Amino acid sequence: MQVSKRITTLNGGGSDGWDVFYRARQMVADGQPVTELTIGEHDIRTDPVILDAMDKAAKGGHTGYAMVPGTQALRERVAARVQDRTGVSTSFENVMITPGGQAALYAAHLVTCEQGDRALYLDPYYATYPGTLRGVGAEPVAIQTHPEDAFQPRAEDIAKHAAGAASLLVNTPNNPTGTVYSRETLEGIAEVCREHDLWLISDEVYDTQIWEGEHISPRALPDMAERTLVVGSMSKSHAMTGSRIGWIIGPKDVVDHLINLATHTTYGVAGFVQDAADFALAQGDGLEEKVAAPFRRRRDITQQIFAAQNTVGVIPAQGAMYVMLDIRATGLSGEEFANRLLDEHLIAVMPGESFGQAAAGHIRVAMTIDDERFTKALETLRDFAISLAKH
Ligand code: PMP
Predict the structure, then answer these.
(1) What is the pLDDT of residue 109?
(2) The model's pTM
(3) Whose CA is nearest to atom 12 of ligand 1?
(4) Is the model's pLDDT at 15 over the cut of 70?
(5) How confident is the model at residue 390 (pLDDT cuts 50, 70, 90)?
(6) For residue 245, which atom of ligand 1 is closest to its CA?
(7) If you measure from the C-alpha of residue 139 to the centroid of ligand 1, how many angstroms do you get, rounded to a whole number?
(8) Nearest CA to ligand 1 atom 16
(9) How many whole angstroms separate alpha carbon 52 and alpha carbon 316?
């Protein structure tokens, strides 16, 4: 029996740079003491107060089918949060609850792209992006950003690819670069979207992790609310990765179509998870800051460790739980460096090449282990890079 081309071509062709990640996982399974700085998963678990709320909701009976668009309470809570943080008038009718940000990304593109439409995204990118775009039948078009700009996208580069495209996907704070898009960057992006009539899909799942500058949601820029779909999630903000809870914010008529799509795909999100999410959001900034604090600390540790040398370049992590290091002075590719660091020092990082072409010669470090081990691993990485550059 044949499976569909859409599914067999989902990942595109060629090497995806994830070999080192799978190799590290295998080494861990074989009992080797590998320090993993690879994926974006917190080293803390969901706060027990959130789990208590989930338990109470489940035992209280909220285990049947929940409302497909999301519970009224959670939609209103998310709408209020978004309105409060962006100043854009937002009601529950602008919100659909999704099983995580990933499902929201897929739905947002399915609702905006026709079969064969060009869907733009920025390189380096979160690993699933091109597959998500192919999955809805669109043609993914990567637009390069540049390390010398600290990976802030250039509007003129986007404009060159914009004619006839359907959508543009952006992500700030950014995975994998840690870059937070400036107001100027976002205004340039908004201008291109208005001029070329593009949908803007704005992935803001790291919006509570800001170390420098401010998070600006492009939906708040002039005339952008009507053409922007914001993807949100509680995975990163509340360490709820396993609960699979997120949302899409958009114009009411688009949300109505998204609800119809959800009726035919996910059929909504578990009611007890939604109640826990509602409880968590009601706790306000305090809980979010508590979840973000370790990454802020480790980002400062990273800056100290790399301060007094110039072999490894640090892309200043302005947000999110990652730091991107420029290791081109070692003469190795990101992939070669990551493989040797794993073999010679049992430290696993992601090669920049696993996020596209723009971050070649870089590595991404996830700041997701305790401070002491994190410090030790980065000192080892720094000394390894310096010794390579000398030879
Ligand atoms: N967008 C970005 C940029 C991410 O890094 C992730 C998860 N790593 C997601 C979306 C999806 O997150 P989730 O489905 O857990 O909400």
Answers:
(1) 98
(2) 0.97
(3) 101
(4) no
(5) confident
(6) 16
(7) 21
(8) 101
(9) 38
Place of tokens 């499976």: 3
The pLDDT of residue 18 is 80
Question: Ligand 1, closest atom to CA 241?
Answer: 15
246 ligand 1 Cβ < 6 A: yes
Percent of the chain with pLDDT over 90: 94
205 lines ligand 1 (CB under 6 A): yes
Instruction: Specify the ligand 1 atom closest to the Cα of 175.
Output: 3
239-290 pLDDT, tens digit each: 999 999 999 999 999 999 999 999 999 999 999 999 999 999 999 999 999 9
In this structure, the number of other CB atoms found within 10 A of the CB of residue 159 comes to 16
Evaluate: CB of 171 within 6 angstroms of ligand 1.
yes
Answer yes or no: is pLDDT of 222 > 80: yes
Answer yes or no: is the C-beta of 98 below 6 A from any ligand 1 atom: no
Of all protein residues, the one whose alpha carbon is nearest to atom 13 of ligand 1 is: 101
Answer whether 132 contacts ligand 1 (Cβ < 6 A): no
